[in-house]
Amino acid sequence: MSKKKGLSAEEKRARMMEIFFETKDVFQLKELEKIAPKEKGITAMSVKEVLQSLVDDGMVDCERIGTSNYYWAFPSKALHARKRKLEALESQ
Question: pLDDT band at 69, cuts 50/70/90?
Fold first, then answer.
């Protein structure tokens, strides 16, 4: 019997960000629940909770359009956020 070790929360978050950065696309929750288990090994049950934690931390953007929620994150936004943080630290 082989025990399969699950991913940590940080590993799940990193893999979820990879999905956004590799595809540079906008997703709905249902699409991510299908893609994440196949491509990154994140269980379908935890996709929503991982996604919500990324939205809460401002790493992924979420917008409600009509009755649907759309999620996206682009590499350029992450780069600009890092530059601003670096500039703030250097000024201190």
Answer: very high
DSSP string, 16-82: HHHHHHHH---EEHHHHHHHHHHHH---GGGHHHHHHHHHHTTSSEEEEETTEEEEE--HHHHHHHH
pTM given for the model: 0.77
Q: CB-side exposure of 72: number of CA atoms within 13 Å?
A: 10
In this structure, the chain runs to a length of: 92
Q: What are phi and psi of 30, to 5 degrees?
A: -60, -40
Q: Is residue 6 within 8 Å of 41, Cβ to Cβ?
A: no
Residues 26 and 71 sit within 8 Å (Cβ to Cβ):
yes
pLDDT beyond 70 at 1: no
Q: Give the mean pLDDT of 40-53.
A: 91
